[in-house]
Write a structure and sequence with these properties.
It comes from Posidoniimonas polymericola. By secondary structure, the protein is mainly beta. It is about 10% helix and about 55% strand.
């Protein structure tokens, strides 16, 4: 009985830090469950789980494995991820080799670079599930625009083939994005086989940044009326700013800190104004027209300790469509009180025989939020 009680106590002591580690790791993911829904056979069905480092230490996504061959996982970001930067765990639904309803558990291993703990790791389990239809096929499996310069337009075509009942038809194609236009043409209908040509157009005025959308193909199939198709690409901005995350770190109340931004364009431009709703930030830039500008950002910590997050928008003479933006982060800390003076003998004496403090395992991460 005594031995059993000791074993239970040991298990509690060992497993408690692990459970805590999994919780801090889980909090970095935007979600841990994704439903692919009902998708066409051959479609490029991919989901990227976003990971945001909310801690002061650097973190790294070590590996990911799947419980089912229906889903192939991978780590998109293998480098160390700094505070507020993002990484991605990619889950690809294998629609070319599987049909029917499938699900998988993805196990992600995470490592922390901490000066306090030699090895600190966490683990998160993600879940994906969906239904791969065998009667609808896309060729190619997704709409891939690749990289498109801001202000340009690009078209891509997809063939949608259905095999089944002769009365099946596509009634509509819907998109939540104002950056896309769609045209649909029925090409063939015979013997239970229906073929459509789908044209997707990325508009000239598409917003710069990643294009990650879904088109919903609405059919007259009452059991599975919607079939999604992925749309991916990137609109390369005419004007960009670096770094995208301007981290000031810790600043004591009443103190100040300075950082620099680099704003680049493909052709010469002028900075006409810099917008930030927080008065703690001040900006200095030149008025010349050139391809590369350096903006000095001064941060003055106020009297209220806490975390700060401030969007910054840089307006140029090219108009609102060609503005550049980034986000500034800072932690305002309460000013340290001056230590009281003590006799040298007392200080020296108090250090004799002192034992070093042990940092608990679960304090290896200091959250910035």
């Amino acid at each position: 009985m005594y031995l059993r009680a000791c074993l239970l106590l040991l298990a509690t002591v060992v497993l408690a830090p692990v459970a805590h580690a999994q919780q801090w790791a889980k909090e970095m993911f935007d979600k841990v469950d994704h439903d692919f829904g009902s998708v066409a056979r051959g479609s490029d069905t991919v989901y990227r789980f976003e990971v945001t480092n909310k801690y002061k230490e650097d973190i790294r996504l070590l590996s990911v494995r799947s419980s089912c061959g229906c889903t192939s996982p991978s780590v998109e970001t293998t480098d160390w991820i700094k505070t507020w930067d993002k990484g991605y765990v990619v889950a690809k639904f294998n629609t070319r080799t599987f049909t029917g309803i499938h699900s998988a558990t993805l196990t992600v291993d995470i490592e922390v670079k901490s000066p306090k703990v030699s090895t600190y790791r966490g683990q998160v389990q993600l879940r994906v599930h969906g239904n791969i239809r065998g009667d609808v096929v896309f060729e190619p499996g997704a709409i891939e625009f690749g990289e498109v310069e801001q202000g340009e337009s690009l078209e891509k075509r997809v063939t949608v083939t259905y095999s089944g009942r002769s009365g099946w038809k596509i009634e509509d194609v819907r998109s939540a994005s104002e950056n896309l236009e769609v045209e649909l043409t029925e090409r063939q209908r015979s013997g239970g086989r229906v073929v459509y040509d789908l044209l997707a157009r990325l508009k000239e005025g598409a917003t710069p940044g990643m294009v990650k959308e879904q088109l919903a193909i609405v059919t007259n199939d009452s059991n599975n009326p919607r079939v999604p198709i992925e749309v991916q690409g990137r609109v390369v901005p005419e004007i960009s700013v670096a770094p995208a995350h301007l981290v000031f770190g810790k600043v004591a109340e009443g103190e100040s800190a300075t950082k620099r931004l680099i704003v680049r364009g493909k052709t010469p431009f002028r900075i006409v104004s810099i917008e930030c709703k927080d008065d703690c930030f001040k900006f200095t830039s030149d008025e010349d027209s050139k391809e590369r500008h350096i903006v000095t950002v001064a941060f003055a910590a106020g009297a209220k300790p806490g975390e700060m997050k401030a969007p910054i928008i840089i307006h140029t003479d090219r108009g609102d469509a060609y503005a550049a933006s980034c986000t500034a982060y800072a932690t305002v800390e309460q000013a340290a009180e001056p230590a009281s003076a003590k006799p040298q003998e007392e200080v020296a004496g108090s250090s004799q025989g002192a034992l070093p403090t042990t940092t608990p395992l679960n304090s290896g991460l200091a959250q910035d939020l």
